[in-house]
Design a protein that fits this description.
Layout (H helix, E strand, L loop, with lengths): L8 E6 L13 H18 L4 H6 L2 E12 L8 E9 L5 E10 L4 E13 L4 E2 L3 H8 L9
Antiparallel strand pairs: 1-3, 2-5, 3-4, 4-5, 5-6
């Protein structure tokens, strides 16, 4: 996949008490939710909100995700979650994230393989980067 030279998009989230497991740190599933939140916010900032995509008959699908848990996150931590999309000529693209606590410690890395679904055919579109660039009001946010 080609990488973008654009500075990574990032959102800050606070760890809430109900996101903890019995050991007092963030439950594994919440890491995925933080990554999904960053992806959704990135798309919205580019002008590709879920509503806009639905109006144009497309939707993002997550095909594969992998999390590397590196350090604990606990209640009250502030976490910056970046999102780095990379497109190629393939039907799939990546949106990777790094979760960094406010003290600078990298807590996790997420690798995500995505596709852009044509909602009428239920098939992945051939060139998702081009399709998103055409839909976006600010394609530079996506590195396009």
């Amino acid at each position: 996949m080609a990488s973008s030279s654009v500075r990574p998009f990032s959102v800050r989230v606070g760890v809430r008490s109900y996101e903890l497991d019995m050991n007092g740190h963030v439950n594994h599933a919440v890491y995925h939710q933080f990554g999904e939140h960053a992806r959704s916010e990135l798309l919205a900032a580019a002008g590709c909100s879920f509503g806009r995509m639905i109006e144009h008959g497309i939707g993002i699908v997550l095909l594969e995700t992998r999390v590397r848990f590196l350090r604990e996150m606990r209640h009250g931590d502030e976490v910056d979650v970046d999102c780095r999309p990379a497109f190629s000529e393939r039907r799939v693209f990546t949106m990777d994230s790094t979760l960094r606590r406010s003290d600078g410690v990298v807590a996790a890395e997420i690798e995500g393989v995505m596709g852009l679904l044509d909602q009428s055919t239920r098939r992945l579109v051939a060139d998702p980067g081009t399709r998103l660039r055409d839909l976006a009001t600010d394609p530079a946010v996506l590195g396009l």
